[in-house]
Amino acid sequence: MNRTKLPRIIAPASPLCDYFSGNPGSLDFIAMNNHLPNKLTQSSAYNELSYLTETLESLQAENEALIKRLSADPSDFCGSFSTFSDDDSNHQSEFSPGAFQLEQKISGLIQRLEQRDKELVDIMKWVTPNSIKRKPNFIEVEVQKNKRPAFDIVSTSLLVSNDQRKFFKSIEIEHQNKELREMIKCQEEELRLLRARQNLFNSMQLSQSATLKIDQLSKGQQPQRLVDVAPDRISEQDITIQILQRELKSLIKQRRLLTDQRKNRKMFVRNQRIGFRSAVKIQKIMRGFLVRISMKNQKLAATKIQKVFRGWISRHKQTFLLEDENQILSEENNNSLSDEETAKTIHMTPRSEKEIIEEEKNKNNEKQDKEFENGESNQKANHSSVHVHIPSLEIP
After folding, report:
1. Which of 140, 195, 332, 388 could join 136 via S-S bond, C-beta 3.0 to 4.6 A?
2. φ/ψ of residue 222, rounded to 5
3. Is 346 exposed, middle or buried (0-12, 13-18, 19+ CB in 10 A)?
4. Transmembrane stretches, by residue range (predicted)?
């Protein structure tokens, strides 16, 4: 069988960045200006896997095409294969040509399928060697025991150990750095516990061995060996329980301190809020009280000012009215005197005392009527402007 040499397609450098598709993935053009890691060459194992996967896919496609052709009509195969010998053509003349051609083609296809199956088995051994179950040799068992695990949590979590990733974003670097810090903290904690445990065991072993020897010598007994005095598994467990209890007590104390601090902070904020609310209420009450007092004083001052001003206006009006009345009376007196003189001159007849008294009475009655009318008008004006009577004040 002539194997067609397939073109070798290089897989993308990063699973998130496919250069052969329309989706650029996580390709950051700004990150390309930064310094790249030292490992820029692709691993040979990755290239070999990509090549084997491509050949496997092509073989699967050919097998599917052949199965489809077998499931189709036998007449379709008449012109496809024309590489038969003369013996085959003579043999075809004896039997029916269609059945013989079909048998020949089926046998050829079966042979090709068997060859393809063998190739697929070989490829699967390379692609997934763990999928084939077989009993390992004693050499493989020993090698597997001394072999370092391929999947290491520390090495796989690091960015530099990953050959398939050439571009990284700042978020991924921060995330992995955070994981590394947490892992380092856990390891430091474990080392601290182991060192403390080792120190306690050594000190306890020395103290117990010395005390036991002294006691035995004081009692006159033969001291035991150090191996017998060494702590066993139960004593180690007791000591670990004591260590954990002490650490738990310290953690509880720290937790209580933190809770007390949070509680005090919350109570302080709560008291501040209550104080602010009470202060706002007191300010509202005091401001309302002061505003009411100031409004009351303003009203009283306004009424007093109005009363004084209106009283001054009314008195000023009364003075003008009195002056006008005096002028009118003086004019009337002058007119009456002039009338008497004219009457004396015209008639030359003196009047009697009764007539003079009646005229004076009539004049007095007219004056009283005028004064009464003027008084009523002033009272109406005062009642309309001022409701409370205030005695007159002397204003300069």
Report:
1. 140
2. -80, 130
3. exposed
4. none
Q: How many CB atoms lie within 10 A of CB 171?
A: 9
What is the tens place of the pLDDT at every residue in 54-113? 888 888 888 888 888 877 654 554 444 444 444 444 444 444 566 677 778 788 888 888
The predicted structure's pLDDT at residue 392? 43
* Own/partner long-range contacts of 364-369 (Cβ < 8 Å, ≥24 apart): 367/329
The span from the CA of 50 to the CA of 202, in Å, is: 57
Maximal C-alpha separation, the chain: 197
Q: What is d(CA 31, CA 167) in angstroms, rounded to the nearest whole number?
A: 7
- 285-304 burial string, b = 16+ CB within 10 Å, else e? eeeeeeeeeeeeeeeeeeee
* DSSP code per residue over 195-224: HHHHHHHHHHHHHHHHHHHHHHHHHTPPPP
pLDDT digits (tens, 9 = 90+) for 110-148: 888 888 888 877 776 666 555 556 677 777 777 777 766
Tell me how far apart the terminal alpha carbons of the chain are, to the nearest angstrom: 140
What is the pLDDT averaged over residues 175-187? 80
Is-contact 78 101, C-beta < 8 A? yes
The Cβ of residue 101 has, within 10 Å, a number of other Cβ atoms equal to 19
3-class secondary structure for 114-172? HHHHHHHHHHHHHHCHHHCCCCCCHHHHHHHHHCCCCCCHHHHHCCCCCCCCCCCCHHH
Tokens of 60: 């699967």
Partnered with residue 17 across adjacent β-strands are: 14
Whole-prediction pTM value?
0.22
CA distances from 171 to 27, 175, 181 (A): 14, 6, 15
Q: Are 82 and 90 in contact (CB under 8 A)?
A: no
Q: Is 20 helix (H, G, I), strand (E, B) or coil?
A: coil
Tokens of residue 309, six digits? 């001003």
